Amino acid sequence: MIQLLLDHFLFVNNINNFGQTIEKGGMKVKKLVTRMVIIILLLGCAYATSPVQIKAFSSQNVARGAFGDDVIELQSRLQYIGYYTGKIDGTFGYGTYWALRNFQEKYGLPVDGIAGLKTRKKLVDASQYDEKFVKDNLNKGNKFTYYGSKPLSSQVGQGAGKTENVQLPAKYSDQDLKLMANAVYGEARGEPYEGQVAVAAVILNRIEHPDFPDTVGGVIFQPLAFTAVADGQIWLTPNERAKEAVLDAINGWDPSENAIYYFNPITATSKWIWSRPQIKKIGLHIFAN
Amino acid sequence: MKKMIFVLVYSIAVLSIFSYGKAAENEQLSIALSGQYANKMTDASKKLEELDTAVKKTLLFNEADGSSKARDDIWRLSSDIKNSVSSLPLDPSFSTSWMNYLGRLGNYAKEADRAADNVEYHRVMELASKNLRSMADEWQVATSGMVSGNLSIDGWKKRLDVADSGHDWTGMGTSVKQYTESDFPLTASESDSMKKKDLKNMADPEVTREEAIAEFKKIFPHLSNETIGVEMSQPGSPYPFYHIRFAEAESVGYIDITEKGGHILSFLTERPFGKESLPYEDLKKKAETFLKDAGYKDLVYEEARENNTAWHMVFVRVEPEYGAKVFSDVIHLKIAKDNAGIVGLDASEYIRKEKTSRQPITKKNWKTFFHSGVDIVKEEYAYVENDRLEQRLAHYLTVTINENEQIGTYAVIVDTETSEVIKTEKLQ
């Protein structure tokens, strides 16, 4: 076929051009084209024999604990073919883990609950992923599913609004994070990062302490406990830094070293607070027991 | 001139109407809030009476079974009053000590099932009943102004200020604290747990400020060139430590190192993160190598959570006798996704090292222990704190059950000796 094309090319050249010079020029073009064809064929072979490329997911393995776009795609694809019945939220928990293992078992893959290259390839072949549909619904905070057996439009309902784009330990909710970030921002937005984590840690220390309420809301809204609640600054929109500080405290960091109180010595009006044993000063706050 | 007067009069009229509206609105809010506070106060008074009666009822019986219903009431009522107290603007020393007292009373009643010593129960509850009576009387006196509507919220708040107070809140707080100490003294395990929290038992030799900095440089050589301040913890700290602040390139952070032994309590740094994301396997390997190099050699990986810029990883100590994980001795690591740098470490729980002791392991028949639909997918040994704050060797079982076409996964922790279920937790 290629030879025919080349012959045709030369034939046309021969008609339009006369003489030896032109014929020599045609030979050069023939050589050039032949080389290009060989290169293309070689590249094609290299591509065909190279490791499998998937036009989906990132290049990384996806396993329990992972969070983000790859997990959203994994959950969506598993749900599309009926293996995953939970919420598509981008968090690779046990629900996703068991669904993936079932898929691996059914498709004759090694059963390890990790979305490696082979598993991802098989999953891409077996399912479809409408990224726009899934992401739009996640961004709008809609309640939705993504089963391939039903029309997508019939799988969307009113949700509770967009959730925070973070992964929390099991005992904390999205609402806890929001409330704590509001409190940290209202109380310590001008403080160093360490000071913001410490304020979040004080809230958590109080929940564990028998002298205080045992919920995030209970601790934050305990009357006279936080200035930001009294003056309404708790309702300011927190920035990403405050949220990150709360996330670190929730994940086990406590720069306050077990404090249950803190105060600003310049603005504190309570005489009682000075009677508390002081642990550490961070920025403008003194942390105490 | 006429125009000026018109504008002036108009402005004054608008401002007056606005101010009046605002004042009326504030007053309405204040009345509504006073009503809510008064309601909570009367509710607490009423329940305090009921609580006293429930305590007295339990004293009628010698056997724990007879007082079971009344003890449930004690647990419920003490929790209700605690909730009311926590939602009222009260003197902080009084509210904290009272909440503590109510919590301990409820717990004591709840745990009476396990107590073999009925004489001790009667002794404690007789004392509690007497003290509850006097607390109820004092509470009624203290809240009478608010409950009868004679006191505004501002007036109430003024009463809380000790200097202007017609009521001795501090005295009330002190008496409740005394009641707590006399009625419900700390058990040996509670006291032990508090000591551990305060790191009072640490017997390691003290390190100097320079040695603490050297430790920091050894573990985080790439961050420790620019130390911007080293402070000693305040004298009120139950365990003295060095607080080192640093700033290196774009990283700003701190590290706390104990004076006794030079152990890292916690370390955290803040910096702008890149958008790259290294594979999780690489990050885990880096974390494990870092921990080994830093001298933490008895840890195993437990779990990890990915977030936008970093992974939070948890490693847990393994004791050699049973190969059991000690869940009270953990290290938290925060590792950056962009370059696998360690940006956070918290070892405050790990350095408190729980004392674990040998414990018999009785034979269990899990087939009869669990319902027929339950599958055990993983079985390990772990030391876990029970609700009496004792470290117990336990079977740490990961089980699954079919829940409406979804697989539910749970951790069930069973005491190896007594078969008591210490904890059941739904795993995400």
Percent of residues in helices of chain B: 40-55%
Task: Tell me the major beta sheet of chain B.
Answer: 12 strands, mixed
Average of the residue pLDDT scores of chain B? 88
Count all strands of chain A and give the number: 5
Q: Which parts of chain A are unreliable, with pLDDT below 50 for 5 consecutive residues or more?
A: 48-53
Count of helical segments of chain B? Answer: 10
Query: What is the straight-line distance between the termini of chain B?
Result: 75 Å
Q: From N to C, what is the helix and strand string of chain A? A: HHHHHHEEHHHHHEEE
Quick check: average pLDDT of chain A? Answer: 85
**Considering DSSP H and I runs of 4 or more, what fraction of the residues of chain A is helical?**
40-55%
Spatial shape of chain A: elongated
Range of strand content of chain A: 5-15%
Could you characterize what this model shows?
The complex is a heterodimer of chains A (289) and B (428). Chain A is mainly alpha-helical. Helices cover 49% and strands 6% of the residues of chain A. Chain A has three domains: 2-49; 69-157, PGBD-like superfamily/PGBD (Muramoyl-pentapeptide Carboxypeptidase, domain 1, Orthogonal Bundle); 174-288, Cell wall hydrolase SleB, domain 1 (Arc Repressor Mutant, subunit A, Orthogonal Bundle), CATH 1.10.10. Chain A has helices at 2-16, 20-49, 69-80, 94-106, 117-126, 131-140, 174-188, 193-208, 216-220, 227-230, 240-250, and strands at residues 143-144, 156-157, 261-263, 278-282, 285-288. Mean pLDDT of chain A is 85; it is low at 48-53. In chain B, β1 and β2 (241-248) form a beta hairpin. Chain B has helices spanning 2-58, 68-86, 92-110, 118-147, 153-160, 169-183, 188-197, 209-219, 280-293, 366-369; strands at 227-232, 241-248, 251-258, 264-270, 299-306, 310-319, 324-336, 342-346, 375-385, 391-403, 406-415, 421-427. Chain B has three domains: 27-185; 209-352, no CATH class; 366-427. The mean pLDDT of chain B is 88. Chain B starts with a helix and ends with a strand. The chains are: A mainly alpha (289), B alpha+beta (428). The interface between A and B is large, with 57 and 70 residues.
